[in-house]
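[Meeting: bench + compute handoff]

Bench side (C.D.) handed over the final construct sequence. Compute side (W.E.) agreed to return the predicted structure before the next meeting so the bench team could plan truncations. Sequence as handed over:
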Amino acid sequence: MTYIIISASYANSESTAAVILTHEAGAVAISQIDTPELWADLHSSGMSIEPFPVPVPTLEEKIQAMDDAIKLRLNAKAVEMRFDNIASAIAAASLPVGEYRQADGAALHLWSARTWQKAEQIRDAFLAGERPEPTWTEVETELPTFPIEAE
């Protein structure tokens, strides 16, 4: 069947599929693989193809992504020190002083607490308009390093 294409837009970020609006059939999904003839017709027509809309994350999604990155950082350090995760390190911190792994757990617990404190300061400054939205690289450089130096 021959279609008269009215408009077209890519259906994925890779630009390997599109949705065309036609007089004959309404909206039709096409791709390089499934409908190569239509795909070739579209691209040879010279018609402008609308790009695939890239979703813009909400503020809540950005905050969650940053929190997830911090959790990964904390857990990675705990695993590096042979704990299951940061939670198991914090549990070890509650053991009596001198018990196996208590000192390591206490050090990781302090680092975790200071990390979340700094992350909240960065977030609050951004939300208050006191600083531009930080990237993960910028946040990570501002977070405390392990081990925390004694004050």
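W.E. noted at the follow-up: The mean pLDDT is 93. C.D. will use this when planning the next construct.
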